[in-house]
Amino acid sequence: MENLSGLRVSKRRYRLALLSTGILLVVALGSSFASRAALSLAVESCRLNSTLTGAAFPCLKVVQKPQPLASYAILREPTHKERTILTPLADVSGIEDKRLLVPDAPNYFLDAWNEWSIVMGDHANRDPWRDAALGINAASNRTQDHLHIHMGCVSSSLKLALNSHAADIGAEKFQRINTKSAWRSFWVRFVSADQFENINPFQLVADDVPHARADMENVTIGIVGTSRQDGQQGFYLLAEIFGDNDSYGSAEELVDPKCRL
């Protein structure tokens, strides 16, 4: 009888999860991403379903960690199914959230890098150390007020720009480079692969890019995998202050979600 009772409770919880998830999903999709809260609704449906049933739907994956701020989900954008994003389960509005700059802040970029293979699908032949890219938009250039990192491959124009300036990009400090790409003027530095777990890109940009800390809501950040001529693997850390030097690049112009190289 106890087993039967437990089974009934589990079924009720499962039905409740499906109903709740369905309601939230309908609301999120009904907003067609026109509402700046649509992503938050979709993420909440994933969190609820994961908590009650262990399933990630409608997300691709949900990772719950002891530190609530570090928990995250991977999903396709509801109205842009080719775009894959990583987003925290917690209510984090975006790059301007001051919790991203505290010493024990989660490294969402590291999580996105570790989950990058989810994006690949039919592109399993892509080399992350040559092709992978991650990006987050400035608050002044986004459509959703829930932090999310775009995942995919570096666009051909940015890849060409970075390769042409490779000799100028060092590991000691950010260098400003000008290009003919959508990112007309941005800051960039090299971070070795073995250092990536020990740095926080948000903090590094806030501390080392001129005027960034006081203007984080207008900062766009990108991460691009690279393998240098000496064989050292690592990342280009890009930062742009939106509008500075007439540069208005976005995460979407850095990251090609379909990996069309």
Account of the 3D structure:
The protein has 261 residues and is an alpha+beta fold. It has a single domain, classed as HIT family -  CDH-like (HIT family, subunit A), CATH 3.30.428.30. Helix content is 31%, strand content 23%. The protein is built from 8 helices and 10 strands. It has helices at residues 2-30, 38-53, 108-114, 117-120, 128-131, 156-164, 201-208, 251-254; strands at residues 61-63, 72-77, 80-88, 132-136, 149-154, 175-178, 185-192, 219-227, 233-241, 255-256. Strands 1, 2, 3, 4, 5, 6, 7, 8, 9 and 10 form a 10-stranded antiparallel beta sheet that branches. A hairpin with a 6-residue loop joins strand 6 (175-178) and strand 7. The longest helix has 29 residues, at 2-30. The protein is globular, with a radius of gyration of 19 Å. The chain starts with a helix and ends in a 5-residue tail after the last strand. Residues 26-33 have low confidence and may be disordered.
